[in-house]
Recover the amino acids of this structure.
C-alpha cells in the first residue's frame, strides 16, 4: 500500500515538474516572440486592412531592394564572411585595451586577465558563428525580401541581435564587475569613516573598529580604487558598443514601422 502511494506521489511530482518546465519554456518562447521585430511586423500586417494590396506593394519593394543589393554586389555569399571584419576589429580593440590605451596607466595583471577573458569569449563567439553560418545564409535574407521590405528590415534587426550576443555578454560582464567595485568601495569607505550599513534596520549606523580592522579596510579600499580605472575603461568601451548595436536595431525597426505606415496610407488612398 505504501509503495503504491509512493509511486503515485512520485508520478504526480514528475507530472508537476513537466508542467512547470513546459510553462517556463512557453513563457520564454513568448518573451522571445514579443521581442522579435519580425513577429511584430507580421502581427501588424495581419491586423491591418487591405492585406493583399499592402503585401503586393511591400513585396515589390522588397524584391526591388534585393535586386539592388545583388546588382551592387552587396549581397554576401556567407554571413560569417561578413562578420569576419567585425571579429577582427573587436579582437584588435581588446588587444589595444590591454596595451595602455590612450596613454592610460592601467593595472597590468587585471588588464591582462580581463583581456584574456574577453578574447576567449571572442573565440567562443567565432565557433558559434561558424555553426550558424551552416544554415544562416543569404537564403533567409532573400526570403525576407520576398515577404516585403518591412520584413527585410525586421530580419536584419533580428540578425543583428542574434549575431551580437557577445557584445551583450561583454556589456553585462563589465557592468556587473563595475557594480561590484562600486558597492565594495562604498562599503569600505563607510568602514573607513567608522560607519556600517545595517541591513535589518535599512540604515547606516556607527561602529567601533580597532586599528587592525581600519588598516585592513584601508588597504582593500586603496587597492580597489587603483583597480577601478581599469574596470571603468572596459565598461565604457563595451557599453558604447552595446548602445551602438541597440541604436542600429532601433533605427531599422523605426524604418520598418514607417514603411508599413506609408504603404497603409498609400493603399488606403
Amino acid at each position: 500500500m505504501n509503495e503504491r502511494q509512493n509511486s503515485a506521489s512520485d508520478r504526480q511530482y514528475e507530472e508537476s515538474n513537466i508542467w512547470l518546465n513546459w510553462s517556463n519554456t512557453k513563457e520564454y518562447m513568448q518573451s522571445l516572440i514579443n521581442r522579435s521585430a519580425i513577429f511584430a511586423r507580421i502581427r501588424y500586417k495581419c491586423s491591418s486592412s487591405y492585406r493583399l494590396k499592402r503585401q503586393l506593394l511591400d513585396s515589390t519593394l522588397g524584391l526591388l531592394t534585393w535586386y539592388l543589393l545583388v546588382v551592387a554586389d552587396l549581397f554576401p555569399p556567407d554571413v560569417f564572411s561578413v562578420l569576419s571584419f567585425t571579429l577582427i576589429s573587436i579582437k584588435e580593440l581588446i588587444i589595444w585595451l590591454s596595451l595602455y590605451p590612450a596613454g592610460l596607466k592601467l593595472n597590468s595583471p587585471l588588464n591582462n586577465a580581463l583581456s584574456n577573458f574577453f578574447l576567449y569569449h571572442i573565440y567562443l563567439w567565432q565557433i558559434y558563428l561558424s555553426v550558424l553560418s551552416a544554415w544562416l545564409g543569404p537564403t533567409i535574407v532573400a526570403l525576407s525580401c520576398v515577404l516585403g521590405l518591412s520584413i527585410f528590415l525586421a530580419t536584419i534587426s533580428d540578425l543583428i541581435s542574434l549575431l551580437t550576443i557577445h557584445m551583450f555578454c561583454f556589456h553585462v560582464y563589465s557592468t556587473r564587475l563595475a557594480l561590484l567595485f562600486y558597492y565594495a568601495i562604498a562599503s569600505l569607505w563607510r568602514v573607513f569613516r567608522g560607519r556600517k550599513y545595517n541591513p535589518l534596520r535599512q540604515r547606516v549606523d556607527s561602529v567601533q573598529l580597532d586599528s587592525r580592522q581600519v588598516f585592513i579596510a584601508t588597504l582593500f579600499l586603496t587597492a580597489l580604487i587603483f583597480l577601478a580605472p581599469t574596470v571603468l575603461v572596459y565598461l565604457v568601451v563595451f557599453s558604447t558598443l552595446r548602445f551602438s548595436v541597440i541604436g542600429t536595431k532601433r533605427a531599422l525597426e523605426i524604418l520598418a514601422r514607417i514603411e508599413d505606415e506609408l504603404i497603409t496610407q498609400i493603399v488606403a488612398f
